[in-house]
Every structure is written in C-alpha cells, then in structure tokens.
C-alpha cells in the first residue's frame, strides 16, 4: 500500500509498533500501575525532553494531550478573557479552532478578525502590522493548514507581534514532523501539534509548547489530582508551576511510549529528505489534463490538494485506494474561510513523508492516467 495520507495519519514505524506492543503486554502481565512505574523514566522524563528537542525548548514548557485540538482549546480557555477582546486569525484557520472561538464570542463578546491574504494567497503581513492594537489579545496562525500545502510565515508574524502584549498561538498540527520548528525563533506563546500526522506516531497523542509568559498569565480551567491536592479544609494547592499542570492524569501510556519512539525516529532523520518527491508529484499533477491544483502561497510543503474535472474527490480516492494508493477526500468545511470561500466542497488531498519515493509518485500518476 502506497500511503499518501500522512496529513490524516502517518503510518507508524515497526519500532513504534514494537514498543507499544511490549508496553501493552507488560500491562497485561504485570498490571497498568505497575507497568507505569517501570516506565517512569520515559513517561515522566524522556518523552518531554524529546519533544523539547523537536521544538527547541525545555521540558518544563511541554504538556501532553490526547490530540492537537485538545491542546489548543485547553490553552485558549486558560487565558484571562475580558469583554470585547479581539482575536486575529487567518483564512486558513482550522474549523475546530473556530468552534472554540465561537464559544468565547458567545460568553465574552470576543471579536474575531480575519487577516486578509495577498493576491497569491500569502498572509497580508502589512495589514496585520497596521491593525494591531492593545485590544488584540490573541493572534492565531495555522503553520500549514489541512487543506493545502502553503507554509505560512510564522516567524514573520512573530516578529510583528513582539512589540505588542498579545498572545501568539501557532497550530503546528501539520508542520510538526514535516518542517523544522524552533519556538524561540517563531516567538510563539503556544504551539500545538498532533503525534499521529507527520510525526508518524500513534493516534490519540498530542502536545503543546507553553511559554513562560503564557504560564504566568494563564490558569487551567480544571486541574486534576495529578497536579493538585486538597487539604482537610478543602483548600486546593497546585503542586507544579510547569506546563504539566495543564495536563490530565489519565492517558494512554502505551500511546505515549509510541509517541516517544516516533519522535526519536524523526530526530534521527534530516528534514527535507522528501522535498524532491514532493516537487515531482506537484509538477506531475500541475501538468496533467483535467487537474486543478489548489496551491496558494509562495512556499509549499507536504500536502497537495486538487480537484478533477470529471471525477469527484470521493470517486477518485476510492478508485486509488482500491488500486493500493491511499489519499483523502478533503472537506472544505474544515478550513471554511479559505476553501469554502474559493467555492470548493470536497477535494483530493495527497500528503507525503520521507518514506515515500519517486516510484510511488509514478505509480499514482500511472493510475491517474488510466482514468
């Protein structure tokens, strides 16, 4: 099976599968609590250190979640929102994030402004600089959206925001594992990501980087017994001042050790190994009759979206899957401001990682030609 659906979920490596199987076998034989104790060095230390290495930060700034959306929404709700605060997003914002913002609009009257795009699809950074003010509490940018391969210039946004007392969220759900990330260079207060996509980790894993400024200003809406205690008078005390106070105690530890292995795999391989394969696939599709590639922006990576003049997205993906090639029929509603605004409903999304080859592309293009 050729897997061109890494943006949905990457295929885990044999090593990741093995460590998860071993962990589950030990839970079966020894008990879950006992196995957790024997893996304490990984679960309480190594996985945080490896994520920190991936992002260019320290382990105290890393929190684990069961997905990127949980991480993003937890950080959002921890901020001290006030009536009439402004939020700036881009047209590439993920619908799950917009749903969470709609609740803030209902509760606090938060105003959400959408940053316009330049004619080529890049973010209009001049507009952002001109519309920043003390009323802007949050700027949220999706590094690489789920709908196409544009790489938004998150460092340029961060440079603009350094002069303002707002919080800067970067949704790196698709870029983590695909592109090198340095939260210090980006200037993010919060960066969230999923383990299952370009990191090729297990489903049900995610994490967040939380800056010192964010942790000083934010308070988790709920802290469970793993990070807090209650005395005889009912007084609650927080036991940690790091990012882990935003976590929940209950988690799938087999998935966490799998995530740790997947991140070790990613750290061991240079970035941009797949760039040649990506460019080849992009060029082949752009030159093919009946194909319209959806490719805004000056920089692209990892994801290619397109429509076919004669076949629906679901028809084409079903055909390819039956021939041994995975893709995904994307939903425009998942990035509604951009994709619905462009008049799309469904589209074919192909996404690759460093395990894909030029031969994979040739197989796909051969099957496409048969249509």
From TrEMBL:
The GO terms this record gives for MF are: transaminase activity
Q: Does the keyword Transferase apply?
A: yes
Q: Where is the Aminotransferase class V domain?
A: 7-364
SUPFAM superfamilies annotated for this entry? Answer: PLP-dependent transferases
Coiled-coil annotation reads none
What UniProt keywords are attached to this protein's entry?
Aminotransferase, Pyridoxal phosphate, Transferase
Top-level taxonomic group: Bacteria
The UniProt entry, under InterPro entries, shows: Aminotrans_V_dom, PyrdxlP-dep_Trfase, PyrdxlP-dep_Trfase_major, PyrdxlP-dep_Trfase_small
Q: What is this protein called?
A: Aminotransferase class V-fold PLP-dependent enzyme
- The organism is Pseudomonas reactans
């Amino acid at each position: 099976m050729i897997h061109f659906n890494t943006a949905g979920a990457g295929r885990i490596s044999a090593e990741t599968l093995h460590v998860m199987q071993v962990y589950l076998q030990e839970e079966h034989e020894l008990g879950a609590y006992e196995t957790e104790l024997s893996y304490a060095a990984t679960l309480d230390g190594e996985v945080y250190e490896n994520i920190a290495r991936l992002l260019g930060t320290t382990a105290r700034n890393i929190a684990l979640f069961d997905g990127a959306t949980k991480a993003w929404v937890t950080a959002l709700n921890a901020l001290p929102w006030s009536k009439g605060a402004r939020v700036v997003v881009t047209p590439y914002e993920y619908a799950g994030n917009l749903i969470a913002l709609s609740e803030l609009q209902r509760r606090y009257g938060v105003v959400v402004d959408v940053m316009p795009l330049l004619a080529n699809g890049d973010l209009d950074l001049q507009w952002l600089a001109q519309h920043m003010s003390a009323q802007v509490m949050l700027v949220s940018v999706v590094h690489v959206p789920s709908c196409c391969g544009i790489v938004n210039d998150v460092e340029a946004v961060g440079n603009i925001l350094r002069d303002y007392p707002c919080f800067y969220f970067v949704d790196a759900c698709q870029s983590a594992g695909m592109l090198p990330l340095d939260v210090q260079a980006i200037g993010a207060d919060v960066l969230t990501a999923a383990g299952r996509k370009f990191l090729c980790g297990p489903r049900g894993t995610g994490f967040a980087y939380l800056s010192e400024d964010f942790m000083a200003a934010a308070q988790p809406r709920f802290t469970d017994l793993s990070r807090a205690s209650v005395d005889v008078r009912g007084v609650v005390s927080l036991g940690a001042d790091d990012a882990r106070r935003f976590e929940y105690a209950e988690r799938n530890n087999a998935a966490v050790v799998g995530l740790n292995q997947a991140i070790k795999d990613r750290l061991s391989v240079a970035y941009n190994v797949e760039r040649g394969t990506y460019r080849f696939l992009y060029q082949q599709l752009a030159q093919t009759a009946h194909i319209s590639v959806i490719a805004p922006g000056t920089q692209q990576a990892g994801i290619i979206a397109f429509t076919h003049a004669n076949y629906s997205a679901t028809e084409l993906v079903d055909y390819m899957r039956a021939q041994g090639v995975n893709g995904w029929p994307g939903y425009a509603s998942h990035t509604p401001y951009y994709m619905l605004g462009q008049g799309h409903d469904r589209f074919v999304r192909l996404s690759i990682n460093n395990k894909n080859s030029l031969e994979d592309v040739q197989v796909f293009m051969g099957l496409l030609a048969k249509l």
